[in-house]
Amino acid sequence: MSMKYSREIRTGFIAIATIFILVWGYNFLKGNDIFSKQRVFYTAYTNVGGLTKSNAVTVNGFKVGLVKDVYFEPVNREFLIVEFMLTADSYEIPKGTKAVLVADLLGTTSINLVTGNEEGFYVEGDTLTSDIEEGLMAGITDLSSSLISTKAKADRLFESLDSLVGDIRDVLGPGDRESSVNRAIIDLAVTMENLKQASGKIDRILDEDGQLGRILADVEGFTATLDENKDEIDNLLNNLSTLSDSLAAAELASTINNANKAFEELALAMEKINNGEGTIGKLFKDDSVYHNLEAATADLDSLFIDIKANPNRYVHVSVFGRKDKKEKKKKK
After folding, report:
1. Are residues 10 and 59 in the same domain?
2. What CA dihedral angle connects 276, 279, 282 and 287, to 10 degrees?
3. How crowded is residue 273: how many other Cβ atoms within 10 Å of its Cβ?
4. Could you tell me the pTM of the whole model?
5. FRET partner for 140 with CA separation of 20 to 30 A, picked from 108, 127, 250, 313?
6. What residue numbers bound the domain in which 9 lies?
7. Percent of the chain, pLDDT > 70?
8. Is residue 254 part of a domain?
9. Structurally, how many domains does the chain consist of?
10. Domain check: are 45 and 102 in the same one?
11. Backbone angles phi, psi at 318, to 5 degrees
12. Does the residue 198 lie in any domain?
């Protein structure tokens, strides 16, 4: 029986210790130290600027307590009652101290106790005079205005995004391969393939055994040939220079004058022919020659017709003509 009771007692102690640790841990996380002397004080604000439970209470930047609760004043609900407690046992709040609502660079609101110079100290349960740091309310107002402006901008941004998504949906099409983007991708793929083929051709051309390599080899051979025949080329150029000087020194002027004279005489002869002078001019200008030629042509035509109609009149053909002539010779 004694062992049974001792086991139950140990279990009870363990349960009590566990509950105590849970309560202490919960209060510790909330900022309450159940082992320290907790003195509660009060103050009131028209706007707490985001002050919540467990926010710090400081003196010259040193934490001496924390906010225990924030709630509306039961009678005049325009004010918010802030209940805070001191966790620093050695600190006493002098008379005339103000509970100033401040905010750090990150926007976290806390209470800063600005120490007064009056004699005596506040006791637990007293209400301190409240104040708000200069610029805090303006910052809160600016923050609210900024939030409103940000919300409006966000609304416009969402509208723009919605419009953009609609435009993208219109461009992409409902999974249609004939959409503009798909066509552009297909065209880009074709272009890349063409570039790949072109680069291959260029590589083959630039290759040492390619067309460009052969051309460069030919050019190199040609330049080598020119270098080897430099003396002959110089002689050729000198001969061409001598020939041009000889042509320049020739009597080209007299030749040109003779040619001009020949052309003038030819023009004069053509003029005489046109005027009917000389034999050739009469042939061109005299109609009697034409008529005589026409009459002769007609006579020849009549002769040919008569020959064709009466050939015996002009040609005598005899198969036995030679024999008769020989017999006549014998008779004589």
Report:
1. no
2. -170
3. 17
4. 0.36
5. 127
6. 1-30
7. 71
8. no
9. 2
10. yes
11. -135, 125
12. no
The per-residue DSSP string of 9-69 comes to HHHHHHHHHHHHHHHHHHHHHHT--TTS--EEEEEEES--TT--TT-EEEETTEEEEEEEE
pLDDT band at 186 (very low <50, low <70, confident <90, very high): confident
Between CA 177 and CA 169 the distance in angstroms is 13
Task: Please tell me the predicted confidence (pLDDT) of residue 99.
Answer: 93
**Same domain, residue pair 66 and 49:** yes
State the pLDDT at residue 43.
94
H or E, element range at 111: strand 109-114
- Crossing angle for the helix pair 211-228 and 230-249, nearest 10 degrees? 70
Contacting residues for 131 by C-beta, under 8 A, at least 6 apart: 98, 99, 100, 101, 114
Please report where in the chains the tokens 């637990």 appear, as a residue: 124
Position 237 scores a pLDDT of: 84
> Could you tell me whether strands 109-114 and 80-86 are parallel, antiparallel, or unpaired per DSSP bridges?
unpaired
Closest to 33 in 3D by CA, of 64, 73, 78: 64
Q: Which residues contact 63 (CB under 8 A, 6 or more apart)?
A: 56, 57, 87, 88
CA distance 211 to 195: 19
